[in-house]
From TrEMBL:
It is found in: Cytoplasm. It catalyses: 1-(5-phospho-beta-D-ribosyl)-ATP + H2O = 1-(5-phospho-beta-D-ribosyl)-5'-AMP + diphosphate + H(+). This is Phosphoribosyl-ATP pyrophosphatase. It comes from Aerophototrophica crusticola. The lineage of its organism: Bacteria, Pseudomonadati, Pseudomonadota, Alphaproteobacteria, Rhodospirillales. The gene is hisE. GO terms for cellular component: cytoplasm.
Length: 102
């Protein structure tokens, strides 16, 4: 699902900002994309605290979409992120933090 959405987002590079929301975001630049991602993150946090599961799911979808637009703009392929997650498999977050502190 995320790979298919990422491919759609990439295909909007250079598309008409009048007809594509993604093309409009690209045309507004990285800072604006990052700002939108931050707004969606805050909205997701609010719904998470409120406890409405449906709204949390909807805000999460907005958040993921804007995260993928940022990746696409910055040239980060989802496979790179999957690879980082894969590398963390089986490593407890608590253990990882201990090792980080040395
Ligand atoms: N998943 C999404 C998706 N999620 C959210 N959004 C849009 O994100 C926008 C968020 O609304 P906001 O009012 O916060 O943003 P805004 O209109 O930029 O407002 P300002 O901050 O500029 O005032 C809405 O217009 C949503 O429709 C999305 N737009 C597109 N997609 C996917 O991207 C595909 C390509 O879309 P286009 O690029 O529009 O063809 C679509 O088929 C979808 O699969």
């Amino acid at each position: 699902m995320l790979d298919a959405l990422y491919a759609t987002i990439l295909s909007r590079k250079g598309a008409d900002p009048e007809t594509s929301h993604t093309a409009r975001l690209f045309s507004r630049g990285r800072a604006k994309i990052a700002q939108k991602l931050g707004e969606e993150a805050v909205e997701t946090v609010i719904e998470g605290v409120r406890g409405d599961k449906q709204k949390l799911a909807e805000e999460s979808a907005d958040l993921l979409y804007h995260l993928l637009v940022l990746w696409a703009d910055a040239g980060v392929d989802p496979a790179e992120v999957y690879g980082i997650l894969e590398g963390r498999k089986g490593v407890s977050g608590i253990e990882e933090k201990k090792n980080r502190k040395g």
